[in-house]
Amino acid sequence: MKDIVIDLMDYEAGLLSSDDSLDLFATLIRSGMAWTLQGSYGHTAQTLIDRGLIDKEGDITPLVLEVDWL
Fold first, then answer.
1. At a CB cut-off of 8 Å and minimum separation 6, what does 55 contact?
2. Which residues, listed in sequence order, are joined to residue 54 by a DSSP beta bridge?
3. Digits of tens for pLDDT over the chain (70 positions)?
4. Within 13 Å and on the Cβ side, how many CA atoms surround 64?
5. Are the C-beta atoms of residues 25 and 45 closer than 8 Å to each other?
């Protein structure tokens, strides 16, 4: 849990790379936390799912290699 909190703080501060942000959101989706945190996290998670970058189970899809998502 400590790593997720640190990653969330780094994300909020704009310190995560695109890859690290994607990993964070994959973890948040897998754990279900994306839907319990403030609205912007759920919205971003759903956007990543809708764009096909992360699936509903929280796995990063191969499409992410082809798209600059940020």
1. 49, 61
2. 60
3. 569 999 999 999 999 999 999 999 999 999 999 999 999 999 999 999 999 999 999 999 987 666 665 5
4. 20
5. yes
